[in-house]
Amino acid sequence: MELDRNSHHVFRIMYHFVWIPKYRHKVFTEPYRSSLKEIIATITYDYDIELVELEVPIDHIHMVVKSIPKQCPSRIMQIVKSISAQKFFQMYPE
Question: What is the dihedral of CA 2, 6, 12, 17, to 10 degrees?
């Protein structure tokens, strides 16, 4: 893997996030899975977060992202989870 550079430091920061729906229900079936992947890819592109890997099994979500040192992991998850939930429920109100 390559190292990233800013004006004063060299870094490689990667975060592995896993999150699950309530009670680990098996809700990510095919029409929802592909749209959720697209939503998350769009969000990470819009907020300059490099999406390294994204996997959506039937009962949880794995996401590996690269970031700059100024972005904390809690803020990255706040952005991704809040915006993806809003867009997802606009697409599928049921």
Answer: -120
C-alpha–C-alpha distance, residues 36 and 28, integer Å: 9
Are 1 and 53 spatial neighbours (Cβ–Cβ below 8 Å)? no
Residue 89 phi/psi, 5-degree rounding, is -75, -20
CB of 54 closer than 8 Å to CB of 62: yes
DSSP state of 23: G
pLDDT averages per 10-residue partition of the chain, 94 residues: 86 94 91 95 95 95 93 95 95 88
What whole-number distance in Å separates Cα of residue 57 and Cα of residue 31? 13
Instruction: Provide the whole-model pTM.
Output: 0.88
Instruction: Output the CA torsion sign for 46, 28, 87, 91.
Output: positive
Q: Which of 56, 63, 64 is nearest to 28 (CA)?
A: 56
Assess contact for 59 and 46: CB atoms under 8 A.
no
